[in-house]
Amino acid sequence: MGGNVQSGCSFSSLNGNSQNNTQCREARGEKMAATVPPVTRQITRDSHRKKTENPPVDLQEAQDCLIYDRRGVSIPFKSLYQDRKVIIVFVRNFLCYSCKEYVEDLSKIPKRALEDAAVKLVVIGQSSHHHIEPFCLLTGYSYEMYVDPERCIYQKLGMKREETFTESANPSPHVKSGLLMGQLKSIWRAMTSPAFDFQGDMYQQGGALIVGPGSQVHFCHFDMNRLDHIPINWLLQLAEVGETVDFSNKPKILHV
User: Where is the signal peptide (predicted)?
Assistant: First the structure.
């Protein structure tokens, strides 16, 4: 107990010497300041979230899973990202009101912005391929859309199959409906659909990837719940698309 620490200060507080104890703490503080690099970037909840939402993803596991277009024609998952960079959004199911409203905003991204950046946009659901055409008409989405009815990719990439809500979660900027009204809309769409089904596993959560060319993963986010979508403008910036969209009212191009 009477030995010296590395800073050269003795623990003399046992003898009631508070002055030496204070000098010891100050010396140790100076040493820590010399060895610990200073914080040069402000840490916020959003920046922390962006940093931590890149779980390790190995596309090798999922690359040969088959996805289906609106005609029921199958292609391997890897064909989406072999030749160019692609933003891939996985939705929960086609009846999910928050997914519908998110895809409605995806449809507002100008094609020219994606073409100029050589980036492709793809949405993948997990229902029958028969639901692709009605969902595109409903949302106004005109980019590529496929389905993974067996949830092969969802499972192999490790996407969640339950919802987790946190008190610190930010509201999605793309979801306009409240929970009750949104669920009522989903039920009504199910009842009026030509084929009455849930259009996918109701417990399955979605996510977003930015991958390619090749199997390089630039960004990955797995949704915690139905409102945990990545803001679309984040995706555009992370994919190095030079324009973002103002979703507050009408589509408006913002140059960044």
Answer: none
